[in-house]
Amino acid sequence: MSLSRRCALLGASALILSACVAGGRFETDYQPLSPEVSRGWRLAEVQIDVPRSLTVSEARTLLPEADIVWREDPLGDRYAQVGKIMQAAVLRGAQGLRGSRPVVISVTVTRFHALTLEAEQSNFDWGVHNIDFVAQVTDARTGEVLVPATKIRAETPAWSGTRMREARRNGITQKSMISDHVAATVAGWLGTGPDNRGNFSRMGN
Fold first, then answer.
1. How far apart are CA 8 and CA 148, in angstroms?
2. What separation in angstroms does the CA of 197 have from each of 58, 92, 152, 177, 184?
3. What pLDDT, in 10s, does the model give residues 170-186?
């Protein structure tokens, strides 16, 4: 690669990263439910909807513009892949519900933006997993809405470069990081686990 081309690429990367800094505040946020209410519930079912109206990107870039960016699974139906990840994570997060009233937790994904492999393999310390969804709780027997549709943001720092390469050697993946964070966020929202809310500033999308 010529020196001029290498410099141009470095300059483009710097511009991209500068743009990220300006919009680099993220959070995990929800309105926690009262444990006095949720302790009477028992999980009957988790329903996950990943609307086909969400945009998907397969662009091999640092910061693709799309609602869904997911690369760890083989190329395929990203909606189904995201749905499977969210199903398992929400189910795990709701395991603390051991009351007598069966409930259904319905989740609609609004954003699932993980890192591209290009972003993960870069040597910048940057990246954010943006997982946003709307959750509702209904009575499994009657269909009564117990908790109306509620927005939940589950955004967490991603790892890249040397740190992520070392993490992968220890069995940590983007999927495991996202799943753990979503599960902890759901437990915090339901009042069956520690409050998982917080915010951070970081270069990312």
1. 51
2. 30, 18, 10, 16, 10
3. 999 999 999 999 999 99
